[in-house]
Write a structure and sequence with these properties.
single chain, mainly beta, conserved putative lor/sdh protein from methanococcus maripaludis s2 fold, Elongation Factor Tu (Ef-tu), domain 3, Muramoyl-pentapeptide Carboxypeptidase, domain 1, five-stranded mixed beta sheet, 22 strands, elongated
Length: 364
Amino acid sequence: MTRKTWVLAGAAALVAATVGGVVAATSNANEAIAQEPRASTAKVEKGKLSARVSMYGTLTYRARSDGSPYSVINRARGTYTELPNDGDKIDCGDVFYRVDDKPVLLLCGAVPAYRDLHSGDVGNDVRQLNRNLHELGYDDATGVVIDPGGNAFTGKTQKALRALQHDKGAGVTGELDIDDAVFLPEPLRVAKVSGAPGGSAQPGAQVAQATSDLLEVQLALDPSQQADMRKGVSAQITLPGNRSVTGKVERLGTVAQVRAGHEQDTGSATIPAYISLDDPEKARGLDRAPVRVDITTTVVENALSVPVTAIVGRAGGGFAVEVVRAGGGRELVDVELGLIDSAGGRVQVEGDLGEGDDVVVPSL
């Protein structure tokens, strides 16, 4: 179904629901309808119209680009002696958990820990260690200046790392063993802890799942809605308790997803979309909350419009409005329909009418 056909069908449905009937065809669409009783009217207006798509989504915390949480992979061997709680916030440089009472730090970076780091090493993992030491201020604290973009483990790196280890109660070695820290892209909010205090810590096992501390809305779009979505378009989110916040489409998935257990049902495939909040603090305290999202998909400037209830169907097909002319006479004027602004209850029209004309609407 084309977009134009969809608009016309939507208008017809709205007319049927609100007017409850169809105006019979006349032999001449411009023939005046005279001597009618006084009618309720509304003005033909010119201005901006917006089309919206409404759907339900989930307000939750952002993590990976596909909406899934980060996996926190332990590299230490021993016994978990301290673990975070669900909902705890862990900043870059903080102690994340302890194995055999030895702290495991969270350091921020996209490259997972895969080797011990010591003087003379070069690589992207060293670069992110240097950046952490610089941004956490451990170079200034020791009187050295580390290049946060440098990829070499120098004497400056070693000196600042010793300061970090001393501050966090770790062994002061000036080297970073693979089990000393977990590297993840950003500060975290713990979503779920997999390990248990007193449990066995095994290298390569997941100890927790985590997200960022930033709220977003996750949507599952019908593939037919994908064409209406664009990055940056505005959205209104209705929270539990009927509170509203604003946001925008931040990113769109490109691969259709099928719910677990429905792999054979391709008709249930959806496209993920993610809405950022303009003021996330207004939604603080909510997680996995159902929300309604109204997304502005199309805007038409300077559109000529009438109330949807003014539209009548022609028995032979097409649409019309009943215009009240000077002196009180009425005539049916054929119109073509454009954008429907469901929030404002108006529809774009083109025909032999102008801004300020009176059109007949059903009496209240």
